[in-house]
């Protein structure tokens, strides 16, 4: 009987130890994008595409305006596309990966999902810094 109780205690302890990494992963992933005295922070979604992006950071790249609703950042390589999932709740502040060109799209205005985007995260706060026009060096890093 004593051995059975001891086994149960050992198994419970082992199970609790296995839960620690899952709890650590439950912490939100946050990414900062800084350019020309502007800064935005994104809360990232956990998917294969986001994890691949995170593996490249920190990165010094270039950010530029595209169309009238987004800024884009060209990446040094394509990302894993395993995070693809259709969505229909597009909102300004979304951070996406554009499958066509392999770039980041930082939306500050309305947009439409057309089977060509992987959503990576959403902006914390206001889109105002993304309205700052121009092409600038950008630093992207985890915080």
From TrEMBL:
Gene3D superfamilies tied to this protein: 2.40.100.20
Keywords from the named record: Signal
Coiled coil: none
Top-level lineage group: Bacteria
Cross-referenced SUPFAM superfamilies: Cyclophilin-like
Pfam families in UniProt: Cyclophil_like2
Domain Cyclophilin-like: 34-141
Signal peptide: 1-26
Protein name: Cyclophilin-like domain-containing protein
UniProt source species: Salipiger bermudensis (strain DSM 26914 / JCM 13377 / KCTC 12554 / HTCC2601)
């Amino acid at each position: 009987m004593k051995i059975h109780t001891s086994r149960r205690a050992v198994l419970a302890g082992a199970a609790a130890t296995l839960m620690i990494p899952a709890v650590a992963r439950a912490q939100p992933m946050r990414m900062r994008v800084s350019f020309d005295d502007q800064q935005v922070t994104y809360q990232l979604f956990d998917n294969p595409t986001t994890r691949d992006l995170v593996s490249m950071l920190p990165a010094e790249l270039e950010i530029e305006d595209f169309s009238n609703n987004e800024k884009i950042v060209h990446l040094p390589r394509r990302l894993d596309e395993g995070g693809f999932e259709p969505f229909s709740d597009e909102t300004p502040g979304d951070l996406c990966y554009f499958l066509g060109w392999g770039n980041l799209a930082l939306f500050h205005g309305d947009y439409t999902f057309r089977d060509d985007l992987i959503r990576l995260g959403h902006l914390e706060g206001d889109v105002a810094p993304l309205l700052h026009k121009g092409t600038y060096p950008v630093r992207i890093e985890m915080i």
